[in-house]
Specification:
Keywords: Cell membrane, Membrane, Transmembrane, Transmembrane helix, Transport. By secondary structure, this protein is mainly alpha-helical. It has one domain (1-182, 245-386, 466-672): Amino acid/polyamine transporter I. 70% of the residues lie in helices and 1% in strands. Strands 1-2 form a two-stranded antiparallel sheet. Helix 1 packs across helix 2 and helix 5 runs parallel beside helix 16. The chain is globular and about 70 Å long. The mean pLDDT is 87.
């Protein structure tokens, strides 16, 4: 109790300094303390309450990984590797991009939503979806909706989940494209992680089964080599010629990668690559947190800026409510996580008690990533921030145009001084980080890289180190995001298999390789076409598509929570359903409101259809250029893209509302004792053992020794040497 009292006191002081103390600036160290203290208390007490009162795990029951073992998709996976895989898969672009974009509204609203939102909503969703999917042989969210809600609600849920999934994967891929475009260092280093992961997969599978720490050390060493050698490659003429690829080319490479990664066995590429990138992710975030504590950068951004109320921000348009809550999606609450939690992860869990660590704990770690990204964005000069994140249409794509635009905004720092910048400052910043330009480098990833570079350079100074840290961060971010792209594609394949299995049952056989290739090809074609559309968007794909990503993501979260609500209501729960109902209702309100604004708002900067008619009317009037569209072809592209975006907005909100309404009706019926069904798979006794937490306790270590001796005597009982 003394330890937890100290943690609570530290957290309370940190929150006071962030939320109530007002000075000329706020020290970034308080964000680290507030986040860590809140996460520790939430995991120790709130997640334990959810486990004891709602979930009730049973380790004597075989998980799908054991009962349905096939060596490809169903494989009992060491909890440490699975934690890494799950964290890597869920922590894509969202916790890096959303907080960076939302920094234009000030530091306070984003901080509260990221930390409080994850504790009460995001981590709850991830934990519960993972558990209920695991109890149903790893079924996808769409198929669980069909089982729980019936035909009408199930069809709406499938359309919503699959279409939203495709837009999410497309936006994740687009962030990678923007981060790696024309960056030979980044393309080379990220590309090299693929053969490294393949080597790790075969090493752990055939050469040294079960030697997790051994392969981890080797993988980390190879990863560091990829980063360091990337500088040599980028500085060589041949390396630059080979790896400095334009954005359309990178987009097609990512599309091909997504297909290959989704059809290979999970142990070969997906799990080791995610595990490898997790070392990178957690290591970098921990390093950044330590650097913030040591360097103690001062944040001069106001607690709440005028853009929060006016809604005319240059980074994205819209007021704080509801657009902050859909811009900061991953890191606080993300429907995409529900797809991973009902996709690859439940097919790999060894024991039911591990779902708390993987589901709730994994999401807390992602939230910490979001806080660190948020602080990094807040720590850089506001003039540089807005020059980097404003569209090329506003800045003209030049340092002179960007400086003039930023200076015209009339922004102020927290001490009341005016925010200004100059062409010389912007050019020097680009030189410091080894880039040709930092102007209009939208998407959040470059901004985070600049922030991390400046903080780390202050901690470890030296000639060329700012450039090294910038490209180190770019590779770190691309690794982050690609793990979500490959895992997302695999999950979309599972969803398509479940859906097509209702028509042709063989599609549900995940061992049918032709079916796997067909469903993967369909899903890759879906998100790939959206990616290509965004890459060629004259308005800047990330600027126009990220709000759609946020709304789609949060609608999916509301859908996932509503399905969990029905499931646990049918298990006899009453007041404990508030754990699910409160975040579901909050998410539903803000997201539906945001959807209606994107559909009906007459301001072209907010409403897709308003923007669509603006460009269409201009073409009809004979104009050949408008805003960022410099010719008639680009204007027609804008008309087409905004029509697609507006139509998707309508589709998402209609399907989401149908699912939530049907779920509410089914929940009320369950509370009245009507329509009680049990969709869990039959219980199968488990014949294996695995510890619950990251570190095994003494009793668990003794049992591990006994099981190791048993497997040595009866090797045939060990599932192909997976170490269990």
């Amino acid at each position: 109790m003394a330890i937890w009292s100290v943690i609570a006191l530290i957290g309370a002081v940190a929150w006071w300094m962030i939320a109530f103390a007002r000075g000329e600036s706020v020290n970034a160290v308080w964000f680290v303390f507030a986040a860590v203290a809140s996460y520790l208390i939430a995991y120790r007490f709130y997640s334990k309450y959810i486990q004891d009162k709602l979930v009730h795990p049973n380790d004597k029951r075989a998980t799908p990984a054991e009962s349905n073992y096939d060596g490809k998709d169903f494989v009992p996976t060491d909890r440490r590797i699975l934690y890494g895989h799950h964290f890597a898969a869920i922590a894509g672009a969202g916790p890096l991009v959303g907080p960076v974009l939302a920094a234009q509204m000030g530091y306070l609203p984003g901080t509260i939503w990221i930390i409080v939102g994850v504790i009460l909503a995001g981590a709850v969703q991830d934990y519960l979806v993972l558990f209920v999917s695991m109890r149903r042989k790893g079924r996808s969210l769409g198929q669980m909706a069909r089982d729980e809600l019936g035909l009408f609600g199930g069809i709406a849920a499938f359309i919503a989940t699959l279409s939203i999934m495709l837009i999410i994967v497309a936006i994740l891929a687009m962030v990678v494209v923007n981060a790696l475009g024309e960056s030979s260092w980044g393309v080379y280093s990220v590309g090299l992680t693929i053969p490294i992961a393949l080597f790790m997969g075969f090493y752990l599978r055939y050469l040294r089964p079960g030697k997790v720490m051994e392969v981890s050390v080797i993988g980390c060493a190879l990863l560091l080599f990829a980063i360091v050698s990337g500088r040599w490659v980028s500085e060589s003429e041949m390396g630059h010629a080979i790896f400095a690829l334009d954005r359309p080319t990178i987009a097609w490479i990512i599309i091909a990668y997504g297909f290959i990664a989704a059809v290979l066995p999970v142990w070969m590429l997906l799990a080791p690559r995610d595990y490898l990138s997790t070392f990178m992710k957690i290591g970098v975030i921990a390093m950044l947190a330590v650097a913030i504590v040591v360097v103690r950068p001062e944040i001069h951004v106001p607690a709440i800026t005028r853009f929060a109320e006016a809604g005319d921000g240059p980074v994205f348009s819209g007021k704080l409510f509801p657009f902050l809550f859909v811009t900061i999606a991953c890191g606080a609450l993300s429907g995409f996580h529900a797809m991973i939690s009902s996709g690859t992860t439940p097919k790999l869990v060894e024991k039911e008690s591990q779902t708390r660590l993987i589901g709730y704990g994994g999401m807390l770690m992602e939230s910490f990533v979001a806080i660190m990204a948020f602080v990094a964005a807040l720590s850089i000069d506001q003039g540089i921030y807005f020059a980097m994140n404003s569209s090329a249409a506003a800045t003209g794509g030049t340092v002179e145009g960007a400086a003039a635009f930023v200076n015209s905004l009339g922004l102020v720092n927290s001490d009341g001084s005016t925010v200004t910048t100059s062409a010389a400052v912007l050019a020097q910043t680009a030189t410091d980080v080894g880039e040709a330009s930092i102007v209009s480098r939208t998407g959040g990833a470059p901004t985070l890289a600049v922030g991390l570079s400046q903080i780390m350079h202050a901690l470890i100074p030296g000639e060329g180190m700012a450039s090294f840290w910038y490209h180190f961060a770019i590779m770190f971010e691309a690794l982050f995001i690609l793990t979500s792209v490959d895992a997302g594609t695999r999950v979309a394949r599972f969803m398509a298999s479940d859906a097509l299995g209702n028509i042709y049952p063989r599609f549900r056989d995940l061992n049918w390789r032709l079916g796997a290739w067909i469903t993967t090809g369909l899903m890759v074609a879906g998100w790939g076409s959206i990616l290509v559309m965004g890459v060629h968007d004259p308005l800047g794909g990330i600027n126009t598509l990220f709000p759609l990503f946020g709304i789609a993501n949060q609608l999916l979260a509301a859908v996932a929570l509503s399905i969990c609500l029905v499931i646990f209501a049918r298990k006899g729960h009453t007041w404990t359903l508030l754990i699910i109902a409160v975040p579901m209702l909050f998410t539903a309100v803000i997201t539906v409101y945001g959807s209606l604004l994107k559909i009906f708002d007459p301001n072209p900067a907010i409403g897709y259809w308003a923007n669509h008619f603006k460009y269409r009317d201009a073409i009809a009037a004979g104009e050949t250029s408008l805003g960022a569209a410099k010719n008639l072809d680009q204007m027609n592209t804008v008309v087409f893209n905004t029509a697609v975006q507006g139509s998707l907005s309508i589709l998402f909100v209609v399907c989401g509302l149908i699912v939530m309404i049907v779920s509410s009706i089914k929940t009320i019926q369950a509370l009245r004792g009507i329509g009680i069904i049990d969709t869990e798979a039959p219980q199968v006794p488990s014949k294996m053992f695995a510890p619950t937490g990251i570190i095994a306790n003494p009793a668990e270590r003794e049992l591990e020794k006994e099981w190791a001796a048993f497997y040595e005597k009866y090797p045939q009982e060990n599932l192909e040497g997976t170490g269990h």
